[in-house]
């Protein structure tokens, strides 16, 4: 494997990113990116078009793997043609269908025991039910259901539809505990049977690209990030991207009947209990728009305000919310007076709200038995100086901030190196450079005010 190059693809909601790395140590030698259309649904051809625009970098690789946004519903007909634009994870139109499926098929406890998770609007299974009820002709045409990374892996050269256990665990019709599909759940959602991709073993070579590169099975974005960071049991990650996530590597599967923790599998043969929020980095960009600031200026404004933002508290459910499950919710500002209505306090309240939401997510993981060995803060939102400075007090632990990098793509590249090597474990790559952040106090009062607003706010 010495001298070989491997490519990892991150096909996210917003763009395609590719990193080209040395297989032996993960050093990045080239990068490229291309945008995707905005929205909550997208025709898969747009992902392929974006991938085609980065082929000059991609085709230098001796092995390739794709990490992509979880949950997206790619429905194909009998000829393998896309039936309709893919419904993405952030499309909440199937919220009522999630509730119906839970009620019809044994309740939340049964779903958690069978699939590791209680489905919400993000999950593929709920989108299938939405299509069955709202687009019955498309449902009748659907012969096969894939996820975004499955579809891209097939287009890159896999000889058959293939997925991995990490991404499969976010469908709502595959069991992390048993490692098997649950076709009765898919049938109940779609109204008919449909084919699903084979679930490859971690690190398996699943095919070759047109230029002869080995092809890894790929995975979901959060699983790719875990692999890229080299996470081990006890590591907790708080990621601030388009969505917010808190996840941890675990040796046993989770089954949270409350639905707060999704009991996913990881890309490495273990498990990845995860809590996701719909609102994360956009809380900061929305607050920047409200205050007429750039993101850098917003950070400076927040740091200029006192802890607690002068009594201003923001509930940041700007686009509905997944955790807690309030798909119709809107944002709420409380405690605003003529005395505290300053740009600084609004900025501080936004940063505190973002971190309080994610601190709640970490608490939900702890309730499932996760015992943090260390907490890592990643994602675009971690570039904010205010986020880094306030995080230890609000999260209640010291925080490690790895150097900004495309960790989903790096995880996919590490998986590609694994497939190329044919070993039982992924290659050991050096840990990314990181900074350490601590606080001499915990922001108990901030979290208490946030919790009071969270628990009293109406759905709309």
Q: Tell me the major beta sheet.
A: 7 strands, mixed
Radius of gyration: 21 Å
CATH topology of one domain: Nucleotidyltransferase, domain 5
Distance between the first and last residues' Cα: 56 Å
What is the typical, i.e. mean, pLDDT? 95
Supply the CATH class of one domain.
Answer: Alpha Beta
Number of DSSP E strands: 24
**How would you describe the shape?**
globular
Share of residues in helices: 25-40%
Strand content: 15-25%
CATH-level-4 superfamily name of one domain: ATPase, nucleotide binding domain
Count of helical regions: 16
CATH architecture of one domain: 2-Layer Sandwich
Which keywords apply here?
16 helices, 7-stranded mixed β-sheet, alpha+beta, 460 residues
Structure explained in plain terms:
- The protein is 36% helix and 21% strand.
- Strand 18 and strand 19 form a beta hairpin.
- With 460 residues, it is α+β, with helices and mostly antiparallel strands.
- Strands 1, 2, 3, 5, 13, 14 and 15 form a 7-stranded mixed beta sheet that branches.
- It has a domain of 226 residues: Nucleotidyltransferase, domain 5 (2-Layer Sandwich), CATH 3.30.420.40.
- It contains 16 helices and 24 strands.
- Helix 12 crosses helix 13 and helix 13 packs across helix 14.
Question: How are the SSEs ordered, and which strands pair?
Answer:
Layout: E1 5-11, E2 15-22, E3 28-35, E4 41-42, H1 44-52, H2 55-58, E5 63-68, E6 74-76, E7 86-87, H3 95-104, H4 107-115, H5 124-134, H6 136-141, E8 144-146, H7 148-156, E9 162-164, H8 165-168, E10 174-175, E11 180-181, H9 183-190, E12 198-200, E13 207-208, E14 214-215, E15 219-220, H10 221-229, E16 235-240, E17 244-248, E18 262-265, E19 271-277, H11 281-291, H12 295-304, E20 313-315, E21 332-334, H13 343-367, E22 374-378, H14 385-395, E23 399-402, H15 407-421, E24 434-437, H16 444-456
